Amino acid sequence: MNARFDMMNNDLGKSLGKRFAGLSMLLRNSSLPTSTQELVSLRASQINGCGFCTDMHTKDATAAGETAERLHLVAVWREATVFTPAERAALALTEEGTRIADAGDVSDATWAQAREHYDDDQLAALVMLIGLINAANRMNVIVRTPAGMYQPGQFANVS
C-alpha cells in the first residue's frame, strides 16, 4: 500500500505530530502499566484496521518484553487465559470505547470493572489513551500510512 500523504513530511503535520507524540509520552510516564498501554493500543488498532499502529504497538510491546503468545491472543482476549483481570477490564473498556458508534455508549458494567482495577490516575490515563489511539488510528487510516517500516521506540525522543 502506498501512503496518500506523508504527515511527517509536511511542516504543519510534523509540528502537530510532535505534540501528539508528546501526549503519548505523558501517558507512557503515567502509573498505568506499560504492558496494559501496549495491549490497549494494539487492540484498538486491530479493531480500527490501522496497520501502521498495529505494527508499531506490536513492536514496541515486544521491545518492552511482552510475549509473542499474549500479543497473538489480544484479538481474542475473551477466550484467552493469559491476561490478568485488570488487563481484561482495560481491553473491555478499549473495545467499547472504540466501538461507541456501534453501541452508543460504554456500559456501566464495563466501567465498573475498570473502576475495580484502576485508581483515578490510571483511569484518566486509560481513558485518554483510548481516545488518543483511536485518533491516531483514524489519521493513519485516512492517509494510508503503510505498516512494516516502524522501528521500536522510533517516536520516543520527539520534541
TrEMBL record:
Q: Name one GO molecular function term.
A: peroxiredoxin activity
The superkingdom listed in its UniProt entry is: Bacteria
Question: Where is the Carboxymuconolactone decarboxylase-like domain positioned along the sequence?
Answer: 19-96
Q: Which InterPro entries match?
A: AhpD-like (IPR029032), AhpD_core (IPR004675), CMD-like (IPR003779)
A Pfam family this protein belongs to?
CMD
- The protein's name is Carboxymuconolactone decarboxylase family protein
Q: What is the lineage of its organism?
A: Bacteria, Bacillati, Actinomycetota, Actinomycetes, Pseudonocardiales
